[in-house]
Design goal:
Blueprint lengths: L1 H13 L3 H29 L5 H8 L1 H22 L1
Helix pairs in contact: 1-4, 2-3, 2-4
């Protein structure tokens, strides 16, 4: 199921222009500290203790999106150079 979501995300990003992919990468990277701080604050206020770790893992989903977008941009750049 995760692979199908990643495949869908990759194909959705591949169909966009390089400018849009760069904007997706930039916004995803900017959201990382916001999500991380939000999860830590929520965990402290609710006293979740060690249960914060799974939430922190979910908070890093934008990093995966950024990696896929950078990979997609890199593939286009390499294809353009070889043509």
């Amino acid at each position: 199921m995760i692979r199908s979501h990643l495949r869908h995300l990759r194909h959705a990003l591949d169909e966009r222009s390089i400018t849009i992919r760069a904007a997706v990468t930039f916004s995803a990277l900017l959201s990382l500290p916001v999500f991380g701080s939000g999860v830590r604050t929520l965990g402290q206020s609710l006293g979740l203790g060690r249960l914060v770790l799974p939430l922190l893992v979910l908070a890093h989903v934008p990093a995966v999106v950024a990696i896929i977008a950078v990979w997609s941009i890199g593939c286009d750049v390499c294809r353009g150079e070889s043509a």
